[in-house]
């Protein structure tokens, strides 16, 4: 994939190796190859630019899942979550560069430091959150050197000491693998300013997004960098606005029922700043801005991407364009019915967004 122009809009979907969501308890085999293939192909057919392969401590390996997705698709890019700290950065850099070459330049890395001490401990990691972000900074320093250095290099850090490191295999893109990065704490923003090609936010209010974009710009300016911005939502669509809100309330009720059946009580207070920001928004009401729905985030303790935009495809497209007006150029969207929603997004939401964006551009040119 060629580097995106600064103003190009990018849509990213979500891949999981089996059907699961807040309203669909995971059942059956951990890896359902047929489902993974259908989900990946639905995103490609629907015009998505990339598909995210997530990471958590008990999940299937995202790098290997991404290679399977690449094998059954032709164009769509892979945004691969990688939890820094468990693979040496020189090794990880070669793994990503190798897959990038094999896929013709379709790979991006979403570097995650880990926002939950309990999940980190499952893989034997007991650093504090600030220490994890400091380790991520060194990891990305070294990975970028491995992707670009023309001669062996040394690196002396707190967490990594590399002597004469070098990678024969380089990414397809001259500047290296595109780096997505998120995190709203002071330690995270320091890493974002140094390394994020695209800074990833969860689905916050317009005011929260405006504030965080400004803070990231301030962190990036001393390094001469201008990152793109990505926003994550769970669009809930229907043919009418009333039907969309009814569906949102049904999804909330189903989420509560699933959690109760699993014996889950009130969600524990989140340890990461991004989830706290979502809950702060939810405290202001379940329906905010044009059509931001926060009730599911409140119910689940904002465990990941959990806020929704609710309405018809045209209405949700208009809400996304409100964020586009703030400088967001990448939208990571996934549904509570993952496969069916991905198909509908590709059929209705993405075309509605792109048509309205083109209309606005034509109007501006005419003016």
Q: What is the strand arrangement across the widest sheet? A: 1-2-3-4-7-8-9-14
What integer value in Å does the Rg equal? 20 Å
From the 3D structure, determine the CATH topology. TIM Barrel
Q: Name the overall outline.
A: globular
- Overall number of domains: 1
Number of helical regions: 12
The largest sheet is: 8 strands, parallel, barrel
CATH second-level architecture: Alpha-Beta Barrel
Find the count of extended strands (DSSP E, 2+ residues).
Answer: 14
User: Beta fraction of the residues?
Assistant: 15-25%
Query: What's the CATH C level?
Result: Alpha Beta
Query: What is the averaged pLDDT score?
Result: 95
Structural class: alpha/beta
Query: In angstroms, what separates the terminal alpha carbons?
Result: 34 Å
Which parts are unreliable, with pLDDT below 50 for 5 consecutive residues or more?
A: none
Helix content: 40-55%
| H-E string | EHEHEHEHHEEEHEHEEHHEEHEHEH
What's the CATH H-level superfamily name? Answer: Luciferase-like domain
Characterise this structure.
There is one protein chain. This protein has twelve helices and 14 strands. It has a single domain, classed as Luciferase-like domain (TIM Barrel), CATH 3.20.20. The protein starts with 9 loop residues before the first strand and ends with a helix. 45% of the residues are buried. The radius of gyration is 20 Å and the shape is globular. The protein has helices spanning 33-45, 62-71, 89-102, 117-122, 129-148, 186-195, 206-220, 241-261, 273-283, 295-300, 313-324, 338-366; strands at 10-15, 50-53, 77-83, 107-112, 153-156, 161-165, 179-182, 198-202, 228-233, 236-237, 287-288, 292-293, 308-311, 330-333. The model has no long low-confidence stretch (mean pLDDT 95). By secondary structure, it is of the alpha/beta class. The longest helix is centred in the C-terminal third of the chain and has 29 residues, at 338-366. Strand 2 (50-53), helix 2 and strand 3 (77-83) form a beta-alpha-beta unit. The protein is 46% helix and 17% strand. An eight-stranded parallel beta barrel has the order 1-2-3-4-7-8-9-14, surrounded by seven helices.
């Amino acid at each position: 994939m060629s580097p995106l122009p600064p103003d190009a809009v990018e849509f990213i979907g979500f891949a999981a190796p089996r059907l699961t969501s807040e309203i669909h308890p995971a059942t059956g085999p951990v890896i359902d190859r047929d489902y993974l293939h259908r989900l990946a192909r639905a995103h490609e057919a629907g015009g998505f630019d990339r598909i995210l392969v997530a990471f958590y401590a008990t999940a299937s390996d995202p790098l290997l899942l991404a290679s399977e997705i690449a094998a059954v698709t032709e164009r769509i890019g892979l945004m691969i979550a990688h939890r820094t700290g468990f693979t040496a950065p020189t090794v990880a850099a070669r793994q990503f560069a190798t897959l990038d070459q094999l896929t013709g330049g379709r790979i991006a890395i979403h570097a995650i430091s880990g926002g939950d001490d309990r999940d980190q401990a499952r893989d034997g990691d007991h650093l504090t959150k600030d220490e994890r972000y400091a380790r991520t900074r060194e990891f990305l320093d070294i990975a970028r050197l491995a992707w670009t250095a023309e001669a062996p290099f040394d690196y002396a850090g707190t967490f990594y000491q590399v002597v004469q490191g070098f990678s024969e295999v380089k990414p397809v893109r001259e500047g290296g693998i595109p780096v997505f990065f998120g995190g709203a704490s002071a330690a995270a923003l320091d890493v974002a300013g140094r390394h994020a090609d695209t800074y990833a936010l969860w689905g916050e209010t317009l005011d929260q997004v405006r504030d965080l974009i400004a803070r990231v710009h301030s962190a990036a300016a001393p390094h001469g960098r201008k990152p793109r911005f990505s926003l994550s939502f769970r669009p809930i669509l229907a043919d009418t606005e009333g039907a969309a809100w009814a569906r949102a309330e049904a999804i909330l009720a189903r989420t509560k029922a699933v959690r109760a059946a699993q014996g889950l009580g009130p969600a524990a207070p989140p340890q990461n700043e991004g989830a706290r920001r979502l809950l702060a928004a939810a405290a202001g009401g379940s329906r905010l801005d044009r059509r931001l729905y926060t009730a599911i985030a409140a119910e689940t303790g904002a465990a990941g991407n959990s806020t929704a935009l609710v309405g018809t495809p045209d209405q949700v497209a208009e809400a996304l364009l409100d964020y586009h007006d703030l400088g967001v150029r990448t939208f990571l969207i996934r549904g509570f019915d993952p496969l069916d929603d991905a198909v509908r997004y590709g059929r209705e939401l993405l075309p509605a967004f792109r048509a309205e964006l083109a209309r606005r551009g034509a109007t501006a040119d005419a003016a």
